[in-house]
Amino acid sequence: MGINNRETILLDTNCFIYYFEDNPNYADKLEKIFIEIQDGKNEAFMSIISFMEILVKPKKYNNVFLENRYKLILSNYPNLSIIDVDYKIADIASRLRANYNIKTPDAIILATGISMNVDYFITNDIKLKSVCSQENIETIAIENVGD
Questions:
Q1: Which of 12, 78, 105, 116 has the most crowded Cβ, counting Cβ within 10 A?
Q2: What is each CA distance from 2 to 5, 6, 91, 115, 120, in whole angstroms?
Q3: What pLDDT, in 10s, does the model give residues 39-48?
Q4: In the predicted model, what is the mean pLDDT of the chain?
Q5: CA-CA distance, 121 to 124, in Å (whole number)?
């Protein structure tokens, strides 16, 4: 994949959902990433927007156990920081929306990565790849993790 030497990674919402729900196509690939983060080989960031999106399904189905489990795992995961939206991120996100016409959640997630000066963005949302390349963030598709 090319990630080495304690790189910084922005994880898209789909990384967490595929991993937590044990997606047969992606869970094994993502497990390697999450282990590297846990072991301190890489530092990871997620937007508070991803945190919110992850909690939607458990709340929709009133699954308090799963909701609390996700909250506990994400808020205590080693070397993973959940980044709130602040003035700087909102400003960057508005520029991304204006320049690339992307959706607000995507703009905030990417703005989080720009604000944290990440090296990589891991996602399966390929339409964001061109935005990332113009913003100097290397995009790695989940399907290519480990290749």
A1: 12
A2: 10, 11, 30, 22, 10
A3: 999 999 999 9
A4: 93
A5: 10
Partners of 80 in beta bridges: 44
Q: Is 132 helix (H, G, I), strand (E, B) or coil?
A: helix
User: Cα separations (Å) of 23 from 51, 65, 70?
Assistant: 18, 20, 16
pLDDT band at 1, cuts 50/70/90? very low
The tokens of 37 are what? 């983060």
Q: Which fold would CATH assign to domain 8-144?
A: Rossmann fold (3.40.50)
Encode pLDDT of 92-119 as tens digits: 999 999 999 999 999 999 999 999 999 9
Q: For 6, which DSSP code?
A: S
Burial of 117 (0-12, 13-18, 19+ CB in 10 A): exposed
